[in-house]
Amino acid sequence: MTLPIPAIDLRGGQVVRLYQGDYAQQTTFAFAPDVLAARYADEGATWLHVVDLDGARSGQFENLATIAAIASAGRLRVQAGGGIRDEASVRRLLDAGVERVVVGSMAIREPKTVAEWIARLGPERIVLALDTRFRDGAWALPSAGWTADEANTLDDLLPWYQAAGAKHVLCTDIDRDGTMTGPNRALYRHLAALAPAMAIQASGGVRSLDDVAALTVQGVAGVILGRSLLEGAFTLPDAFRVAAKAGATC
C-alpha cells in the first residue's frame, strides 16, 4: 500500500516551504515543529519526513536538536536528511533516533561511498534523495540543496544503486516542488521502469486527493505531503482514506 508521509522542512528552527527549491522564495508557517509533528501523529501518521534546509546548504546539522526531539518523542518513525557528508553524520542521525537517513548530495556525487554505507548499515537505514530536473533531454541531478549541477543523471544512478542493494529512493521533480501544480506522474513511471525492485517515494507538486489516488494506483511506496497539508488543501486522514481506497482497486 502507498503510504502518505507528512513532511516538515526546517530552516532556522522554523517550519518553512521553498518554491522550486529556491531559498529566496520561502514561506514560513506559524507551527512549532514538535507541535506540528504531534498533530500529524494524532491524525494517523506513522512516518515523518524531515529536511534540514540549513544543513543541505552548509553541510552542518543546524536543526539536529529539533529533529532529535521529534524522534525521541517516540510517536513517529522519522526519516531525515540535510547536510549528510560522511558516515559519521549518518550515524549521528541514527543515534538521535532517526530510523532512515536521507542522503542527497553524497548519493549523487559519491555513489560508491554511499553504497558502502548501505552495505554496512543495511538498506533500511538509507533513503537516496535523487531529486531531479529535466534539462537538455535528461533527468539532471542537482546537489547542495539543488544549487549545484552534477554530471551524473538519474538514468545513470538509479539502476546502479538498485544493483548495489539500495532499497529506498525519494525523488522530487524540483520544478514541481512547493508549486502545488500536480506531481509528475510520468517521472514516477520512468523510475519504476528504471528500478522496479526499489521502493519509490514521490514528492513535489501534490495538490489534491486525486493526486494521492493517482500516485497510489501507480504503485509508489510513499507520497510526501508538504505544502498541501500546511495550507489545508486536504487533511492527512483524508489522504490515508483515499490511498487505502485506491490501493484496494489496484
Automatic annotation (TrEMBL):
Q: Where are the transmembrane segments?
A: none
Single Gene Ontology MF annotation? 1-(5-phosphoribosyl)-5-[(5-phosphoribosylamino)methylideneamino]imidazole-4-carboxamide isomerase activity
- Which Gene3D superfamilies has this protein been placed in? Aldolase class I
Entry protein name: 1-(5-phosphoribosyl)-5-[(5-phosphoribosylamino)methylideneamino] imidazole-4-carboxamide isomerase
Which catalysed reactions does the entry list for this protein?
Answer: 1-(5-phospho-beta-D-ribosyl)-5-[(5-phospho-beta-D-ribosylamino)methylideneamino]imidazole-4-carboxamide = 5-[(5-phospho-1-deoxy-D-ribulos-1-ylimino)methylamino]-1-(5-phospho-beta-D-ribosyl)imidazole-4-carboxamide
Name the active site residues: 9 (proton acceptor), 131 (proton donor)
Its family remark reads: Belongs to the HisA/HisF family.
Is Kinase there in the keyword field?
Answer: no
SUPFAM superfamilies according to UniProt: Ribulose-phoshate binding barrel
